[in-house]
Amino acid sequence: MQQQGYFYNFLEPVSQDLAFVAKQLENSIFTSPRVVLTHSRIFIEHILQKVMEMEKLPTIRKGMLMDQINILDEKGYLTEEIRDSLHYVRMQGNQAAHDPRKFRYSEALLCWEAIYIIVKWYVEVYASHNIEVPEYQDPSPRNQQTFDIQELVFKLDALEARLSAAFTKREGEEVGRNTIVIDEKITDTLPGNTSIRIISYKSDSIEIPYFLRDAFLLPQRFPRSETFLIRLGAEQHGRIMSELPSNLEGLSKHVKRFSEKNEGQFFEELKIFIEEEKIRRQIATDRPGDLFFFFKTDYIVVTEELSLIPLTERHFTGIPNLLRQMQEDQIERVGQLPMELLILAKYDRVGIGTVERLFEQLKEMQGV
Known about the structure:
By secondary structure, the protein is mostly helical. It folds into three domains: 7-178, no CATH class; 195-286, no CATH class; 292-366, no CATH class.
């Protein structure tokens, strides 16, 4: 995906990570003032860490922004304007981190102006004389899909962790095993696609995107693991994605008469499930405003004409048992069908093949 234009793209030659943190802050001023204030403090802390490294000053441990400011001020590296701007961002960030009150857009904008003063100083004094810092511009509200607050915080945390890891490596220290390692795509993901956790099995692993964090694991979507998932669900271990452990080894111990083989099968089907969901989400993103029926990665658009067709044997052949049970549940027209058609496999003596026959007949009606 190509990067959207943003004010601090001039920072990219200096540090792509700093630039991308600034981009997320810029895009969040009119949606998440508290997040902007909190993470602006961390943003300038990383800048000062770089300054102290260049000036060969003692390393200050993370979270001690006031000490960083005081040391640089005592050594004469800060002008009064820079010092005041640093303290303003620091105090606003501290307040946002602890005060539960509602923060205003105007507060985020004032912090944004202070950040500009700091970044301009950093680029012109320490980064490169060849980079032209543009005149300050107020950000404008963006009519675009935005990140959910929780996902935005995770994304910023991940970018900031990468900045810290890079500094640690420069210091010649070994990065700990539990350090978050962030792929380049963290900077470039669309809302909902940020990877928020990893689920592993033996030597393999899969990333879980934010939009699937609490996804319902419909057993019928896992044909070889359907019974395994039903039993796990009864024990509250496999109903939704967030219930799954970070390592699936030993998952079968929660239910009787299942083994390591079932764990491996489920892991492989979970990878397929995630890829199918990504495809479905892209389809929905590409066609906003349309309604869909999904069968695995195949789909049809639900038109008004299609939605009004009665679910009767006159219109749908070869699936009388399914039609009868749906009518008992007052599902009488196509428009009342679930978007996820495989849900219908829950009915007595209705399998995936029956649902597929229904789907194929719907496709024929749509002329697909």
